[in-house]
């Protein structure tokens, strides 16, 4: 069985893909579903998200550009700020700078696409192991085309969990992620010390960085649903 880690999204993928944007889209996605959202719709652009407003009842728009909420959206991209009463039974339409785009790339070829973060790392690894027949790719979203320490570190955590469950042939990306995981300290240090973690802290979003550093605090794994009635050009995720 093959296990690969892409430090940035590219190329075609095997049957199972784990998409990571630890700071913060995939962490926020996990939190939304954990706290009562019915489903997530990931769009390719903010304009596509805004176009969905009014087409269905109970939609909430959530997203960011440059770390800050998108004008006209109901929510930003804050896992620490996810509010259970607001989310209960609602469908959340998400668009973010990096994470939702990475999910769209993965969905072009991966049969099973899962959203992973440190907060659901163990559950996501177990789910991927249960689904795999060909191989697993862990895809790091990065930050505006640059590799992000927080995503590579999280990929190393996932790779460790997967190796504990069985044997895999590792590519160089997986070896790099494991090396980073073992050398970058604990999750709090790795995420807070990353370029993007430092940037978010300057915006007053340090609580999100701390929240995203929680290791396996959730068992929710956002899972792509193929087909169904999702609007064209969106990815439909539910709790798996």
UniProtKB/TrEMBL annotation:
Keywords: Hydrolase, Magnesium. Its cofactor is Mg(2+). Its EC number is 3.1.3.71. Pfam families: 2-ph_phosp (PF04029). It is an enzyme of class 3 (hydrolase). The keyword Hydrolase applies. It catalyses: (2R)-O-phospho-3-sulfolactate + H2O = (2R)-3-sulfolactate + phosphate. PANTHER family: 2-PHOSPHOSULFOLACTATE PHOSPHATASE-RELATED. Belongs to the ComB family. This is Probable 2-phosphosulfolactate phosphatase.
